[in-house]
Amino acid sequence: MKIKNIFLWILLLIFCSNNIFCQDYDEMREELNTPEEDVNTLWEKAQAAIGSNNIDLATGLLEQIVINVPHDHPLFAQSNIFLANIYGDKGNTTGMKNAIKALETFPSLSDKQKAELENIKSLYNAVVKNNTPFEEDLCGIWVSDFSFYYQEQVLPFIILKISKNSQNNYSATILPYCTLAKYCELYVGIPFKYLAYTENYEINADVNYASFVFGNEKIKTGNKELANVGVKAVGEVGEYTKQAIRSDPNKKVSTKILQEATVGLTTETASALIMLMTVPSVISGTINMNLRQLLPGCAELVLYRNKYSKSNDGRESFSSKEGMMMMYKLYPDYNIKFAANGYELFGHKEYTKEEIVNSKEYKELAKRSIKLSEFNKQAYRDLAKHVTQLCQYTSSDENLTRIIQDRLEHAPQGFLYQEIIFNKGKNSRQYILPSEQNYDLSEYQAKFKNDSQNSRSIGSVYKGWINRAGRKQDGHGRMIWNLGKGKYRDYTGEWQYGKISGKGKMTNADGETVHGIWKNGKLVEEW
Fold it and tell me: pTM of the prediction?
């Protein structure tokens, strides 16, 4: 309320109480522009401005309302709700924060307004994430959407911790709880700092790209030094043992020979021998992780596991395994925790032993009130809910949102997304970048349709999810069979272990389309 209006209201009260001055109430109300009339008019104008998409005008009018009405006035709450959403669209976190604070102090929010407040808080968190520069958002703990059972546990394939020190230098650690660390024995035998930890990185904030390389020439040097120590130690126990170890690549037999040969040696020498046998013939090994941010807290990962080895007779070989998956950052407001086989908990941070044992999650797991595998499945379900919501707030790309939802349904079950061409000879498999994931097989459809020569070098092609264990179609996918002479059969829908099972759509060779439910490859219900 303006000071001039306050002064006029005081005069009005004095005059009326002393019968000095009186005039028609409506006329006085019009002259003084009372707060009630003022806010009602402003509210109507604000609604009209929103309806005509004049957001700047609406913002100014709503801001006037919250300034001029008491904090328990109904329009105070409703105006702040509108303002919070407008500020959110503009990326104004300060305005959003003030509106949220005002709403939290409002004495009587309706159930609908309470629900709107929770949505606004979620929007606020999304806007904060969206405003965070890539190089800052990069720091934290990330989990892969791809997971599979490891000793009857559902563990993320990758758990990556990215940090930045006071000198703005980055480092990355593959945490020991994930399947990659266990599968590659990153914390066993070979020095941890060379395989699971790296300061070897490249970051390009202009294109939201980061690359980390684990393992380098230090491994090669380390192996050579270790080998020299081992040969020296073997020399102390005789030529027979030396030759046996060199000629026998079998770890179990060699270890037995070592145990027999190292009796009576110093502890240092014996340990060197045992370590020698645990180090494979790998001269250089690297794990490369290339991350490209698609949304705040959501990145596409291309993973390479490279191995260069040299056999005893001097032959060299190189192998590389490639994988593609999504990585998601575990933000503090997600309040999501995963558990490892020792009930170690991790979420947006690594928890201390004291924090773990005092947490309700640990107590539930220790009492076996919930199975470890189900615990992590629930964590993935919660992650899917938060990421989907974040997509709605920060992305207008409906296709990307669909891909993320699709992946968070299938990848945590251990399913991989691939394109498979079934040839007469050897089948070919191709990994597809998550951001390019779709079920489009129009290229092959056209090729089969125009195949008048009845050439069937390609028998069929599949694009979709497969289970890692049996490499069979599992989950959602599309398959086209080349029937020859320009005819084909096309199915899109659900699969179970290599067979059509579930809801789907089949287009037969004559063009007839069938919608229905299949079980073990047979149609059991038609719609």
Answer: 0.76
